[in-house]
Amino acid sequence: MDKTVIFAVAGSGKTYRLVEQLDEVRRVLLVTYTDENRENLRIRIIQKFGYFPENVKLYTYFTFLHSFCYRPFLLDEKRTKGMTFQRPPAKGPIYGIDNDNRYMTPARSLYHNRLAKYVEQTGVVKDVIARIEKYFDAFFVDEVQDFGGHDFNLLMLLSQSNVECMFVGDFYQHTYDTSRDGNVNMNLHVDYEMYKARFKAVKMELDLTSLMRSRRCSKSVCDFISMQIGIQIESHSDVLTDVRLVEDQAEVQALYEAPDIVKLFLKEHYKYGCYSQNWGAAKGLDHYMDVCVVLHPDALAAWKAGALTELNPETRNKLYVACSRARGNLTFVPAALLKKYKRTAAG
Fold this sequence. Notes:
By secondary structure, the chain is α/β, with parallel strands linked by helices. 35% of the residues lie in helices and 16% in strands. It has helices spanning 14-20, 35-49, 61-78, 112-121, 125-135, 149-158, 192-200, 219-229, 249-257, 297-305, 313-323; strands spanning 3-7, 28-32, 56-60, 83-84, 110-111, 138-141, 164-169, 205-207, 213-214, 234-235, 243-245, 262-265, 276-278, 291-295, 330-334. The strands form four sheets. A six-stranded parallel β-sheet has the order 3-2-6-7-1-8. A five-stranded parallel β-sheet has the order 11-15-14-12-13, with helices on both faces. It has a two-stranded parallel ribbon with strand order 4-5.
């Protein structure tokens, strides 16, 4: 069976590639991380077929983990009460990996960041693999770069299923982990070469070329990302658009008030009362035309010094996500010039 992981760049057609592999016969299990991306995939699938075919099952990761991997094999025995996104307490009893109490609250809700390890520890991975092989012909994973902690280890085990496997993602769009648990895979996304080696170790083929040109971003935006942020990306077109920093208050106000230009903030976009989103949360969104990226003081200083490559990796990746949303012009503005629009807690 084919086992492939495709390393892509922003706007290169990751979702399109996955949806194009679907037909009305082959049974496909399709897993993605966020609710937003699941909805995006659902819409694209309906656009292709005119309806959602029964032979395709689309899950967010934690729904897949709990309902497909855990419940059929362990629920009756363990008698748990759903899953919680709260973290295990930092203080308190320390339980060994073979102790059920390690994986659930006193009220028997499963810790999301340890559930994959629980599935592995209880010896049911072989049963999950058998279930995949029974009900599906292919196992696809979107946004694979967001898998971390125990979830990445489980994914590598499930890739050994005797079905076609295709995982798609962009290493530099890693902005969130599915979960973290202590030091488990803490350095997974630190080094690109080591990350690729983890897939090679489970005998997956690496496709490093087919999705390396953006169909979304102009040559100007791709050149900016490559040269200033230090993440290599090419454009499918030679179209040139504006990429500039605006510091004139009147022009910034016009951008702020423009209903068709999204304002992307590092965090807390909802406090500004405009058409907006956070840098990282914009991942997977493909409908913006012109984009205005709001630079907090450290990012602004780095922009002016030509040192955006020196931002911490998580911030740099989120900035890459933000910039690569632009189909048209890409404008940067200092956060200080939008401060007067920010809502206070009282307001």
